[in-house]
Amino acid sequence: MTGFNAKRLTSIGPANTIARSEETHPLTWRLRDDGQPVWLEEYQQKNGYAAARKALSEMAQADIVQTVKDSGLKGRGGAGFPTGVKWGLMPADESMNIRYLLCNADEMEPNTWKDRMLMEQLPHLLVEGMLISARALKAYRGYIFLRGEYVDAATNLNRAIAEAKAAGLLGQNILGSGFDFELIVHTGAGRYICGEETALINSLEGRRANPRAKPPFPAAVGVWGKPTCVNNVETLCNVPAIIGNGVDWYKTLACPGSEDHGTKLMGFSGKVKNPGLWELPFGISARELFEDYAGGMRDGFTLKCWQPGGAGTGFLLPEHLDASMYAAGIAKVGTRMGTGLALAVDHTVNMVSLLRNMEEFFSRESCGWCTPCRDGLPWSVKILRALERGQGTQQDIDTLLGLVNFLGPGKTFCAHAPGAVEPLGSAIKYFRSEFEAGVASSTAAAGRAETVNL
User: Residue 128 pLDDT more than 60?
Assistant: First the structure.
C-alpha cells in the first residue's frame, strides 16, 4: 500500500469520527489529512522535539530509563518485552562508552504495515524517539535497519535526518547538552528473519542473516561486539509522548482491565468494507475493531476466521471476536496478539490452500540454520501441496500435527519456526475436515505411498 489515508486513523471513540488529539493519540495526532509527510517546521509547530529538549536538558539518563520502565511500555514488534527492562540490561560500566541503538524497521510480517505509515508520514517522530532513547542508553550512534522495499520511507527518513542535523538536533553537542548522536538509515536485502534482533545485527555487520546464540544478549555483545539495544519503530515512537506527558497520563490511555498500557496501531485487512489502520487503546474488543472500524465483511462474504496480528499468529473463529486486544486478552483465546494488524478470512477461502501459501513463505524465509526449521517447513509444504491436490494420505494430517509439535517453542534456534507452525496447528484444530477432504481414495493413497517408499 502507498499513500496511507490519514482519515483511516480515527479517534478513540466512535468509529465515524476523525478528530485526533495529543491527549488521546500520541502516535498519530500530528498526521496531515492529505497524507503528506510532516517535515521539521510543521513537526516543531506541533510540539515536536519538546520531549527531546526536556530529556536532554532536564533529565538524567537514569531518569529517562526509569520513566519508560514505569510507563509499562512494551515492544510493539510482536514479542511484547518491556522496553524499560530491556534498556536496563545495558551495562552501567562507563568504560564501555561505545554503544549502539538499532531500530528494527524490517517489517516483513505479512499483513503488517504499521511501521511503514509512521516512517513515511511522521519520520521526525521516529528520529525524536531514537534521540531520547539514545540519550537514555548512552548510545552515540543509531541505525534504522529498514526493509529494502520501503523506498519512500527511506527517502523521507533521510530527509528528516538531514533536517534534524541542520537544526542541531542530531550530531555533536545536541542542544548544548554535550550529548553526541549520529543516526544512519541502513536498507536491508529483504529477509523475514531479519526481524529477529540478532539476525538483524548479523546483517548490519555484513554477515549472513542467521540468528545468534543467546546468551550473550545484544545488551552485552551486540553490533561489532559492543552493547546494543534493538527496538521496533512503533515502540520508539511512543517514547516522546511518555517523556513529554508523563507516566500517569500514559497509563490512562488503555481501556479499563487491559494489562498493557497506552495505545496501539491496529488494523484489519481482507475482504472487509473498510480495511485500514487505526490508533486505538489497548483492551478494545476485536469485535469493535472488526465491526465499528473495519465495517465488517463486504456484502456477499461472511467471516470464516481471523488472525489477530500477522501471518505468524494462530487463527481464531468469529466467536473469538469478543476477546480484548492486548497480549493477555488474546492469549486467553489461544494465540498471540503479534503486531495487532488482523486478517479477516472469508468463507470462500480453502484453508489448505491458504496454509500452503503461508508455509511456502515461511519455508523460503528460513535461514536454514537449524534442522527442524530447515527440513520441517519444506516437509509441511510438500504435504500441504498433496492435500491441496487431493492426493494426501491418512497419515498426512497426523504428520503435520507432529511437525507443529517438533517445531514448537523452545525446540528451534529462534522463534521463526514456532511462528510458522502456529497458524498451521490452529487451522487443523478448527478446520480439520478441510484437510481430511484432501486425502485421496485408499487405492490412490496407497499408490502415492508406494511411490514415496521407492
Answer: yes
Residues 6+ away with beta carbon under 8 Å from 133: 87, 101, 139, 229, 231, 236, 239
> DSSP of 38-68, one letter per residue?
--HHHHHHTTTTHHHHHHHHH--HHHHHHHH
Decide: 91 and 219 in contact? Cβ < 8 Å.
Answer: yes
**Do the beta carbons of residue 341 and residue 309 sit within 8 Å?**
yes
Q: CATH for 263-346?
A: 3.10.20.600
Question: Does the pLDDT value for residue 369 go beyond 80?
Answer: yes
The whole-angstrom separation of Cα 277 and Cα 342 is 10
Strand, coil or helix: what is 91? coil
All three cell numbers of 41: 517546521
The fold for domain 25-251 equals: Rossmann fold (3.40.50)
Q: CA-CA-CA-CA torsion for 205, 207, 208, 213, nearest 10 degrees?
A: -70
pLDDT of 21: 84
Alpha carbon distance 175, 169 (integer Å): 7
| 451 pLDDT higher than 90 | no
The CATH code of the domain at 351-453 is 1.20.1440.230
Q: What is the pTM (predicted TM-score) of this model?
A: 0.91
Q: What is the DSSP pairing of strand 228-232 with strand 341-346? A: unpaired
Angle formed at CA 359 by CA 112 and CA 3, multiple of 5 degrees: 20
